[in-house]
Specification:
Elements (H helix, E strand, L loop, with lengths): L1 E3 L17 E3 L17 H14 L8 H11 L13 H4 L9 H13 L4 H12 L14 E2 L6 E7 L4 H17 L3 E7 L9 H13 L3 H10 L6 H10 L4 H8 L2 H16 L7 E4 L2 E2 L6 H16 L3
Parallel strand pairs: 4-5
Antiparallel strand pairs: 1-2, 3-5, 4-6, 6-7
Length: 310
């Protein structure tokens, strides 16, 4: 079963995005590929082997028909690296001049293995590898975890009452563990008050906990109790994570907390974010936040681009 990562909503002044991202079940069984068409020619075999090697994908996973489709699509796509001529198939092996090539081939192969239609694969790759500059996202005063010197920065726009955000928070913890010191994670509030009754109040509760140095314990507590977010519930949560309850109760309605949440929501509006959770890695909006390998692939690409001054 596929789970949507975006909740439908109406946000004034924003264009609603039509594409819904999915978080798949972690234990889905993948059967062995079975070739249907004729065997590959020697030339097709060599060319496909080269792309599979570049993408660092296990060769037995891709059957002859899938390899043929990979070659056809790679030869019809422009090179994803600015200033590098040719098609994806031609430039992917030029690692010195085309950092994004291997990542683009890997993305193409993943779409083929999922049996996505050509137009869906092409649209997703254009969104990820198209010629767009990364966004500038300020994280001053924002709760973060991970070393400040980490080469990859993930910024999450989230809502404590959104069920998909709760699911994603567990995934992000897996990613953080796997990425180690290479990743810094920052959290920004985007409460979807039009569809979530307690989202704004929960966001203020987390911001109030931040004032006492306990944002992340409260973050975990709120997601673990996403159906218990009334004011009385929040006071109980504050007690459970060891906050000064009297100060928390005052801060919950205070100006500093309101400014923190409002500033994050305004930033989300600037970036035309229309749903939660939304992820940016080194300023690039993730288009397919599906599982830990996908996140790690984006992180590796972000680090590679950074190392090449891009």
């Amino acid at each position: 079963m596929l789970h949507s990562l975006r909740a439908p909503q109406v946000v004034p002044g924003l264009l609603l995005m039509g594409a819904l991202f999915a978080l798949p079940a972690a234990c889905a069984h993948q059967s062995d590929p079975v070739a249907v068409g004729p065997p590959l020619s020697a030339g097709e075999e060599a060319a496909s082997d080269k792309l599979v090697k570049i993408a660092e994908v296990d060769p037995p996973r891709i059957n002859a028909d899938q390899r043929r489709r990979m070659l056809r699509m790679a030869s019809g796509m422009k090179c994803p690296c600015e200033g590098v001529p040719g098609t994806l198939g031609e430039c992917a092996e030029q690692r010195a001049t085309c950092v994004r090539g291997p990542f683009a081939v890997r993305s193409l192969i993943r779409g083929i293995l999922r049996a996505d239609p050509d137009e869906k694969i092409t649209a997703r790759m254009l969104e990820r590898f198209g010629p767009r500059e990364p966004e500038v996202i300020k994280v001053d005063g924002v709760p973060c975890q991970g070393p400040e010197s980490a080469p990859a920065l993930m910024v999450i726009y989230s809502d404590f009452e959104c069920p998909f955000c709760g699911m994603a928070s567990r995934l992000v913890e897996e990613v953080r563990s796997a990425a180690g010191g290479k990743l810094r994670i920052c959290f920004k509030h985007f409460p979807l008050s039009s569809i979530h009754k307690y989202a704004e109040l929960a966001a203020r509760a987390a911001a109030a906990a931040q004032l006492q140095g306990k944002f992340w314990p409260m973050h975990d507590r709120l997601f673990a109790n996403a159906k218990s977010l009334s004011r009385d519930d929040l006071l109980d949560h504050a007690d459970a994570v060891g906050l000064d309850k009297e100060r928390f109760a005052v801060d919950l309605d205070g100006e500093a907390v309101k400014k923190r949440v409002d500033a994050d929501a305004a930033d989300a509006a600037r970036l035309r974010i229309s749903g939660t959770p939304t992820f940016f890695i080194n300023g690039r909006r993730m288009t397919d936040p599906k599982n830990t390998p996908t996140f790690l692939d984006w992180i590796a690409e972000a680090i590679a681009l950074r190392n090449h001054g891009q």
